[in-house]
From TrEMBL:
Organism: Paenibacillus pseudetheri
Entry protein name: Flagellar assembly factor FliW
Protein location: Cytoplasm
The protein's assembly and partners: Interacts with translational regulator CsrA and flagellin(s).
Keyword Cytoplasm: yes
Length: 148
């Protein structure tokens, strides 16, 4: 299937890359079908609308940036997505002009069922996370550049 994107023009995606979001994404209720496009050899993906070439989200693997990241997926949400065993979790990244100011939204992960190809952005109500965690925070500490 060919889709139109702003970033790459026409792009060929296969059915395995397409996920259906029955309720859309918050703020984009009408957009229900997205392609998950991997950026080779990075922890980043694009979630590109199939219908609207101007609508895409940069996603990251939260476990790469925050290895201790965890949350409990409620049974109702797992059932709604048809998740048995396999699940993919990605979080929306907001890139800033100064890369060190970029953030990752750990409060509202995007949960994907790679078998049934369904997805949903879930807001974690009882979690210690927020929408703007530093993308580079743990790397800065590891590199010894934590300001201390």
């Amino acid at each position: 299937m060919n889709i139109e994107t702003l970033s790459w023009g026409k792009l060929e995606v296969n059915e395995e890359q397409v996920y259906h979001f029955p309720k859309g994404l918050p703020g984009f209720d009408e957009e229900t079908d997205f392609a998950l496009i991997a950026m080779a050899e990075t922890p980043f993906w694009y979630l590109q609308s199939i219908k609207n070439k101007g609508l895409s989200f940069l996603l990251g693997d939260p476990f790469v940036f925050y290895p201790s990241y965890e949350f409990e997926l409620l049974n109702e949400e797992a059932e709604e997505l048809g998740i048995d065993n396999e699940v993919i979790v990605r979080c929306v990244i907001t890139l800033k002009e100064q890369v060190e100011l970029s953030t990752i939204n750990l409060l509202a992960p995007i949960v994907l069922n790679p078998v049934g190809h369904s997805g949903k952005q879930i807001v974690l109500h009882k979690a210690p996370y927020h929408t703007k965690h530093s993308l580079l925070q743990e790397q800065l500490v590891i590199d010894g550049k934590d300001g201390g």
